[in-house]
Structures are given as C-alpha cells and as structure tokens.
Amino acid sequence: MTNKENFLVGIFDDEDVLLHAVENIRDKGVKIKEVYSPFPVHGLDEVLGYTRSRLPIAAFLFGLTGTSLALFTQIWMLGYDWPMIIGGKNFHNIPPFIPVTFEFTVLLSAFGMVGTFLIVSDMKPYKWPRQYDLRSTDDKHVMAIDLGANKVSKEEIRRILKENGASEVNEKSF
Amino acid sequence: MQASSVVRETLVTGGKTVADVSHDISRQVEGKPTRLWWMAFGVSLVLLAYGAYCCWIMLWNGIGMWGLNKTIGWAWDITNFVWWVGIGHAGTLISAILLLFRQRWRMSINRAAEAMTIFAVICALSFPAFHMGRLWLGAYWVFPLPNAFGSLWVNFNSPLLWDVFAISTYFSVSLIFWYMGLIPDFAVIRDRAVKMGNKSRANVYNALSFGWDGAAKTWMRYESVALILAGLSTPLVLSVHTIVSMDFATSVVPGWHTTIFPPYFVAGAIFSGFAMVLTLLLVTRKVFHLEDYITIYHVELMNIVIIITGSIVGVAYITEFFIAWYGQVPAEQYAFINRATGPYWWAYWSMMTCNVISPQLFWFKKIRTSLVATFILSIVVNIGMWFERFVIIATSLHRDYLPSSWTMFHPTMYDIGQYLFTFGIFFTAFLLFAKFFPVINMAEVKSIIKATSEKKKSTH
Fold it and tell me: Which residues form the domain of B25?
C-alpha cells in the first residue's frame, strides 16, 4: 500500500465568499488542489489560475475533418466513382452537397468535442471520483488542499481557511 | 459578485435554497412512482401495444396497408413525420438558442423540453423507416455503404437523402447535448444515494454520470463544451426543418413549389414545439409539484413565443395565397383556391382557426397566465399544426394534373395505428424519463438561485 495522501478540506456555503477566499488563500502562498462545486461558479477558474480550455480548438478541428470528409466522399462517389445524370445537373455539383456537408461537420464536431472532453477530464462510467465531501454536489463548495504539496503548516492553513469564511474545515485522507 | 437585478422577474418562487433544489428534484427519482404515474404509464403501454400490433401487420404485408392511392402517394406518413420533427424543435430552441441569448428562464424547462425533442425525433424517424417497407434493408438505401451494384451510391442530390443526414445528426447531437446536461445531475442523485446507503442506485447513477466530480476545472471545460454545443445546435435546428421543407419545396407540385417554405416551416416547428412543451410541462409540474420552479411567468413567456411564431405562420399562409395570385401561374392559383374552398376546405379552415386565430387569444394577459386556457390552447395548436401538414401534403396531391386521377385520401386503421404507436413511444419514453431522470436541470437552477430566488432577494 502506498503512502496516504492527506488533505485539509474547507467547506464554503456561498460562492462569493469562496471566490474571495480562493484569492486570499493563494496570495498567502497556499496551494489549492481543487475546488468542487455543485454548479459552475463564474470567475472561479480565473482566481484558481486555470488557463482557458482548448476544447473549442478541438471542436473546430473535428468540424474541419467532417467538412472535408463529407465533401470528398460526395464528390468522389457521384463525380468519379459512379457518375449519374440526375436532373441534367453536373457531376461535380457542389450546391446539393452542402446540406450533407454541413450536417456531417456538426456531427463530427459535436461528437469529437464531447469525446475529447470525456478523455481529458478522465470521465468514464466505471470510475468513482475521489470524493472529499459528499455535499459538493448538493449545496456546498468544497476546497481541497493537499498537505503534502504545501510548505505551510496544517494549523496555519486551517486558520487561513477559517479566516476566509470556511464554515467547516475537515481532514481527509485517501 | 453576481448582481441581483430588481428588474428581473423571480424565476424560482417559494424561497428555495440550493439544498432545496437538490431535494425537490431528486425526490421524485428516489421515491416510488405515484398512482397517477402508473395510470398514465398503463395508458401509454396500451397505445404502444395496439400501435405495435398495427405496425407488425403492416410490416408483414407491406405499406399497401396504408390508405395511399396512385394520386395521393404521401399522406399521413409524411404528415406525422413532419409534425413530430416540428415538435422536436422547441427543445433545441430552448436549450441552445435561449442559452446563446442568455435567457435564464430556460433553465427550469430545458431538460424536459430536450427530452421531448429526443422522443419526438424517434417518433418522427419511425415513419420514413416504415415507409422503406423492408426496414432491415434500410441502411443500404439511406447510407453510402459499399454494395453489390457497382457500388451504386446513394443520390446526394436528393432532399430526401439530406433529410436522412439532417434528422440523424439532429437526433444524435440533441442526445449528447441533453446527456451532457444530465451528467452533473446524475452525480447529485448518486451522492444522495451514497448518503442513504443505497449502493446499487449509487453505482447506477455513478455510471450514468461518468464519475462526475464537479471540480472547477471540469466545470470550466464543461461550460465551454455546453456553449459550443449550443452554437452548433443553433444552425443545426434551423437547418433541419429547412431541409424537411425542401422535401416539398424542391419539387414542382403546385402548392409545394414555394421558396418561403424554409422559414415558414421553421416558425411552424417552433410554434408546435412550444405548444407540446406546454402540454407536457403543465402536467409534469402538477404531478411532481414543481410549481415553484415552473412558474406562471415561465408559462407566460412560452405563450408569448407562441403568439409570435403563430403570427409568423399566419403571415406565411397569407403570403402563399398572395404569391399564388401575384405569380399568375394558373396551376398554383388553383391549388390554393382549392385548399380553401375545395373538398378539403374543412382541413384548411381547421388549420386556420387553430393556428392563426386561436393563439391570438394570448394577447390577453388573463388568458396567457391561465393554466387551463394555456393547456387547452396548447393542444389546439398542435391539432392545427397537424392539419397544416396534412393540408400542404394531401390537398396539393389530391388534384392531380389529369382530372381523371382526382381522388380523396381515406386513412385505414394502419395509418391510425401507426400514429397511435408513435404516441405510445412518446408518452412511455417521457414517463420513464420523468420517473428516473431529474426533470429539471438542478445545476443550472442552483447557479441562479442566489440572484433570482425570492428569499435571497429580500435579504439583499
């Protein structure tokens, strides 16, 4: 069995208190492992210092793949592989190919992006997440501080958390 | 940091807290179904069973069992298809377009509306699927799969093929959009199950939630995904009914051959979709006691969307008539005069009454804030929208170019049975959804509780 990881878990009732607390705690040089919330708190990613998600780029690239794949397939199938005269139109007939191209772009972009999201967030049906406090999906914001990664003493972190509005501070080991 | 505005209406009443939201919405998933639910479920299963019987007979004998004839080669099948697809549009409109416009009132209705979209599209898909006759061979006819004829590929010039791609993309993208919204809420139910010591439920809902942890980083990515999915779904939903309308608009049949079909169909789709959302939500809110989340204010806003889209549809009907006269094509002129005064006048005037006249009642505040009036009118609107599709499809076909081919359409019990079958699918699926899935998006509602709940407002 590996060494246990020890955490100090601060519970916050209000998102505005939480935002200020994250700022102050980080200013004091305490490293925050992660904050768990029941709903998205706007501005939390900024105060935690997270860089913007690059998922939009993934969505764009998947979309581009869809566009080119659909156009290529249609032009090749009806233009080269088995040309057919339909309503006297050209074999290489771009306008009627647009609806399918558009739909396929959206399809690949949406599925590609969601798939990427699940992979980068390491989400899978058979995985149980590490739960610091069960109330983090109900009505509390839960801040996890890894004691092993911090030089500040446990008592000091506990004091800083309380000072910044944490309603409870608990210890948790995994 | 989130400013609460005095101008904004209260979206959640009853002084709810964040914890109340988890409790009120999860409760119906955790408890036993009510007697009312069982009764409704029983009725849906009966419809489903009778419909499935009719579909089986029809599949065995072929679609000659339908009431179609040489002149009217498309009738209830495509009418019902377009009707169901149209109903589906409201869900995407509410969840995607209203998200882009930052309309926060969408938050307590989007989950149920999206579920309705998905079930409605399944119902719609069943019609073209059965229309293929041997539907187990369907994949060869609609997807460009290599085959033993050359390969002879599918015809990408055909609007019917565009429909295949439009509807299947619409269905699958709506499905993941809806499912993405459900993920954090499944985690709420999972954690409540852990607290209650219900291990099997916790495992099931954990699997459904893909092991959601609610970390700030995950939420950040999640919001970015939701925004892009909304951005993708917005043109998608507009494209779907546009392409459906092209099934008709690209033909040369008088009465179908009009360029205003795409916007006119999209408006009609949103109109009928909102009506169906209201029908379902008024019942759901009553059965699950969600009056504090789906308020009269929500109902009123949806009724306003119904007036607007209903009026657009009304203008489109009149425009079609005007253009038929102005275009000076005798066949077109005849098609429209025949609609209003020919043997199908009753269908035309049912459509006009239900779609153009009745929604105008919502101009009265008393009517648009009355639940009973809204419920009745929402059903009237959907009857009207069914007639709209029937009028466009059947009346344009029943007077063929040769008077010797003129005829009427008479549905058989298999036409009716298949229509009932889709109602069976729709209500069975919706009732299962309402029982096992959280019917309101808890995470989104929680995020606005502070700014818009009554209690919090007064303490500010």
Answer: 18-459
pTM of the model: 0.91
> What are the tens digits of pLDDT across the range B33-74?
888 889 999 999 999 999 999 999 998 998 889 989 889 988
**d(C-alpha A125, C-alpha A134), whole Å:** 19
What is the C-alpha to C-alpha distance for residues B122 and B104, in angstroms, rounded to an integer? 28
Q: B106, B443 in Cβ contact below 8 A?
A: no
CB B230 within 8 A of CB B181: no
In 10 A of CB B50, how many CB atoms?
16
Say if the Cβ atoms of B2 and A16 lie within 8 Å: yes
- A residues 147-166 closer than 8 Å to B (CB): none
ipTM above 0.95, yes or no: no
* Position B374 in a domain: yes
A118 touches chain B (CB under 8 A): yes
DSSP element (H, E) containing A36: strand A34-36
Q: Which of A137, A138, A139, A145 to mutate to test the interface with B (most CBs of B within 10 A)?
A: A137
What does A90-154 look like in DSSP terms, one character per residue?
Answer: -SS--GGGHHHHHHHHHHHHHHHHHHHHHHHTT--TTPPPP-S-GGGGTT-EEEEEEGGG--S-H
Q: What's the gap between Cα B37 and its chain centre?
A: 22
Q: How far apart are CA B297 and CA B301, in angstroms?
A: 6
Domain boundaries, chain A: 55-120
Contact in structure between B72 and B395 (CB atoms under 8 Å) = no
Domains contained in chain B, number: 1
- In angstroms, the CA B209 to CA B200 distance is 14
User: Are the Cβ atoms of A74 and B156 closer than 8 angstroms?
Assistant: yes
Q: What is the CATH number of the domain that holds B373?
A: 1.20.1630.10
Cβ–Cβ gap A114/B180 under 8 Å: yes
Nearest CA in chain A to B446: A39
Q: Is the Cβ of A44 closer than 8 Å to some Cβ of chain B? A: yes
In-domain check, residue B1: no
B380-431 residue pLDDT tens: 999 999 999 999 999 999 988 888 999 999 999 999 999 999 999 999 999 9
Q: Is the dihedral of CA B234, B246, B168, A101 positive or negative?
A: negative
* Residue B446 domain flag: yes
Q: Compute the nearest-CA separation of B246 from chain A (Å).
A: 11
Is B239 in Cβ contact with A74 (below 8 Å)? Answer: no
Could you say which of A40, A123, A131 has the minimum Cβ distance to residue B223? A40
CB contact under 8 A, A138 and B206: no
